[in-house]
């Protein structure tokens, strides 16, 4: 009934002469990747594309879904809330029943009522804002990543137990994702008695944050947490260093992007961040990791394995109940799946019952290591 992904060798993944030869006339099941294909956050879309492409290739190599080939189409929402409903309507109008994405919380929150009302099964590998699923009564919406109220406490506990700062500033980008996780971190810190001297929003897309950096210096902060994405974090790091603000900075998985290095330069060294566990280090995923690398894809980024998992569980459900989104959603709610990110099961509102965020240190060469 299930698609096997715990494969011992790549030969077992790819098979041999027994592989089904697909023809142009073969029936297909289409998955829409709703991602930022344009705009400043395309790197996150690239991560999702890598995970989806690898999973689809392996599934098709094993014969597809009951003889039907999986295909994909990219739908661009640019990670913009205003574009989320536009992308959703395109998916619906094109009669696509399955989505991996949306990537960003703001665009996802705006789009989800359309998807759920139209019975489109959505698995987001990256949207972490609790508002996406809280009290909405959605049946067709699932995550393959944890929520910010899991990620935020992980960050705050590290700050409390390992950094032990005297004065903390918590900044955010005034958007659903960034402000939500920043508020979560602030609340946990304050509950633990940490002095949060500043909680303030900055404008995403600005090029000069000297005013807020001046404020950070005048407040005497010795640690900064920023809720948002890598373009703003990179500028905060670089401009902070240029203005003599020599304090550690930390962010969520949205800052974990190699492009932050190009923006921040050497100032990125030592940036702290929360990320999903590096599932590429699990020996049980060795064959999947090899499949990624053989196609010059990175299996260790924030969203590759969560995107892979979205396709895997969707494939298992399709194999079990057929190409019927109503039955697929029911099957996902009712079952647990063994995946590269571990055992996956959802609560009633489509959130994972368990998910672990780890703390990493980012380096100037673009690598990351577990934080000490």
Which secondary structure elements does this structure contain, and how are they paired or packed?
Blueprint: H1 10-14, E1 28-35, H2 42-61, E2 69-76, H3 84-93, E3 98-100, H4 105-117, E4 121-124, E5 141-143, H5 148-163, E6 167-172, H6 176-191, E7 195-201, H7 210-219, E8 223-227, H8 230-242, E9 249-251, H9 259-264, E10 272-276, H10 286-294, H11 304-321, H12 325-334, E11 337-339, E12 342-344, E13 357-362, E14 368-370
Helix pairs in contact: 2-11, 3-4, 5-6, 11-12
Q: Judging by the overall fold, what is the CATH architecture of the largest domain?
A: 3-Layer(aba) Sandwich
Tally of individual domains: 2
CATH topology of the largest domain: Rossmann fold
Number of strands: 14
Strand order of the largest sheet: 7-6-8-9-10-13-14
Question: Helix segment count?
Answer: 12
Strand fraction equals: 15-25%
Rg, Cα atoms, Å:
21 Å
Terminus-to-terminus distance? 42 Å
Q: Tell me the name of the CATH class of the largest domain.
A: Alpha Beta
């Amino acid at each position: 009934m299930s698609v096997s992904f715990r494969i011992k060798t790549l030969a077992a993944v790819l098979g041999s002469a027994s592989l089904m030869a697909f023809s142009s006339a073969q029936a297909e099941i289409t998955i829409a990747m709703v991602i930022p294909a344009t705009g400043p956050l395309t790197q996150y879309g690239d991560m999702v594309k890598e995970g989806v492409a690898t999973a689809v290739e392996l599934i098709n190599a094993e014969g597809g879904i009951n003889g039907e080939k999986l295909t994909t189409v990219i739908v661009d929402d640019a990670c913009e809330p205003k574009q989320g409903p536009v992308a959703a309507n395109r998916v619906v109008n094109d009669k696509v029943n399955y989505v991996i994405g949306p990537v960003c919380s703001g665009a996802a929150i705006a789009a989800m009522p359309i998807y759920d009302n139209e019975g489109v099964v959505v698995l987001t590998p990256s949207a972490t804002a609790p508002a996406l699923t809280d009290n909405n009564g959605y049946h067709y919406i699932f995550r393959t990543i944890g929520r910010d109220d899991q990620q935020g406490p992980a960050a705050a506990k590290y700050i409390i137990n390992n950094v032990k700062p005297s004065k903390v500033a918590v900044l955010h980008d005034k958007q659903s994702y960034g402000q939500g996780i920043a508020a979560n971190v602030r609340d946990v810190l304050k509950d633990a008695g940490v002095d949060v001297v500043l909680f303030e929003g900055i404008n995403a897309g600005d090029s000069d944050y000297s005013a807020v950096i001046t404020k950070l210096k005048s407040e005497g902060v010795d640690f900064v947490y920023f809720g948002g994405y890598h373009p703003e974090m990179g500028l905060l790091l670089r401009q902070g260093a240029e203005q003599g603000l020599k304090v550690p900075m930390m962010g969520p998985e949205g800052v974990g992007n190699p492009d932050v290095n190009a923006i921040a330069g050497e100032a990125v060294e030592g940036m702290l961040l929360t990320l999903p566990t590096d599932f590429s280090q699990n020996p049980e995923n060795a064959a999947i990791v090899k499949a990624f690398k053989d196609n010059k894809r990175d299996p260790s980024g924030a969203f590759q394995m969560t995107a892979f998992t979205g396709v895997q569980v969707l494939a298992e459900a399709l194999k079990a109940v057929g190409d019927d989104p109503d039955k697929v959603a029911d099957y996902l709610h009712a079952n647990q799946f063994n995946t590269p990110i571990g055992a996956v099961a959802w609560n009633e509102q489509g959130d994972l019952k368990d998910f672990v965020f780890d703390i990493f240190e980012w380096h100037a060469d673009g690598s990351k290591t577990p934080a000490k």
